[in-house]
Specification:
There is one protein chain. With 98 residues, this protein is α+β, with helices and mostly antiparallel strands. The protein contains 4 helices and 3 strands, in the order E-E-H-E-H-H-H. Strands 2-1-3 form a 3-stranded antiparallel β-sheet, sandwiched between helices.
């Protein structure tokens, strides 16, 4: 399975969480909602996380670079625009590829 950068959203918290996975986004979402990463983790605050968007990566290190770029923007607007605009997703993919 290919590496992916994903963004999940909690309606209850009105917050996004950005992460990466090699396991597939659906499997990772289940783990977040079942608090399998421990009760002290950020996603353990609630169990209503839903997949907002996921981005295929060349490999795991590429997924990490995408995650870091998204987090560095510190912006809900940027995240919403990633979902809205294909061109922005393509730009992120290209900028973080190498």
């Amino acid at each position: 399975m290919a590496a992916e950068c994903y963004i999940i959203y909690s309606p209850k918290l009105n917050r996004f969480y950005v992460g990466v996975t090699n396991d597939g986004v659906a499997e990772r979402l289940l783990r977040h909602n079942n608090h399998q990463y421990g009760g002290h983790r950020y996603t353990a605050k609630t169990n209503d996380w839903e997949i907002y968007i996921f981005l295929k990566a060349v490999d795991y290190s590429h997924a990490i670079r995408m995650e870091r770029k998204i987090k560095s923007m510190k912006s809900k607007v940027y995240i919403k625009n990633l979902k809205k605009y294909k061109e922005l997703r393509e730009k992120l993919y290209d900028q973080t590829r190498t």
